[in-house]
Amino acid sequence: MSSPISPACAHPEPALSRREVMAIGAAGLALAALPAPARAAAPPALTELIARITEGAVPERGRITFDIPQLVENGNSVDVAIQVESPMTDADHVRWIHIVAEKNPFPDVARFHLSPRSGRADIRATLRLATSQKVAAIAALSGGGYVIADADIVVTLSACIDGG
User: Fold this and answer.
1) Count of alpha carbons within 13 angstroms of residue 68, beta-carbon side
2) Which runs of E-coded beta strand occur in 54-145?
3) Are strands 71-72 and 94-101 parallel, antiparallel or unpaired?
4) How far is CA 129 from the centre of its chain?
5) How many CB atoms within 10 Å of residue 94?
6) Average of pLDDT values for 54-82?
7) What's the rounded mean pLDDT across residues 33-57?
8) Are 93 and 142 a contacting pair, CB within 8 Å?
9) At 53, phi and psi to the nearest 5?
10) In the chain, what are the domain boundaries?
11) Would 159 disulfide with which of 42, 49, 57, 76, CB 3.0-4.6 Å?
């Protein structure tokens, strides 16, 4: 059997015994005494997500066009178009384009793999956004570099709420 795509798809854990519940309750009281930053780790910032995707390399701005609406009425359906200026030859092409939405429950929204046979680096897709946030498009070039474009998006009706 394959593993679930996300933790939300995993099978529920079996019920706990009375002793386990009491032990968790005592631990919960100790946890409640901790300051707020120690209790819950904040989701990673966009810069951390980008650094993970680019393996620490700093992407350049330019050569990439990121067309996404600044104001979205419904986060369930956000159209996006990404174009990277590249000749798409064996020596110089775009390897992949990655889309990151920092406040989504799963911020890695999409990754499109390309090759010289793609003809051009032009992607069109529909995304789901949980809330108003910054969305970034990162492209990996065959020469080892990265290019990036980002945009701040205001969402009036949220989608993909955590846990659902």
Assistant:
1) 30
2) 60-61, 64-67, 71-72, 78-84, 94-101, 108-113, 121-127, 133-141
3) unpaired
4) 10
5) 28
6) 92
7) 73
8) yes
9) -70, -40
10) 18-155
11) 76
| CA separation for the pair 82, 121 (Å, rounded) | 8
- Could you tell me the sign of the dihedral formed by the alpha carbons of 79, 81, 5, 40, in that order? negative
- Quote the CA–CA distance of 105 and 98 in Å, as a whole number: 16
Q: One-letter amino acid identity for 92?
A: D
Fold designation for 18-155: Immunoglobulin-like (2.60.40)
Instruction: Count helices and strands (H / E) in the chain.
Output: 3, 9
- Using a 10 angstrom Cβ sphere, with 0-12 exposed, 13-18 middle and 19 or more buried, the burial of residue 118 is middle
As a dihedral over the C-alpha atoms of residue 50, residue 46, residue 64, residue 111, rounded to 10 degrees, the angle is: 60
What is the pTM (predicted TM-score) of this model? 0.70
| pLDDT beyond 80 at 19 | no
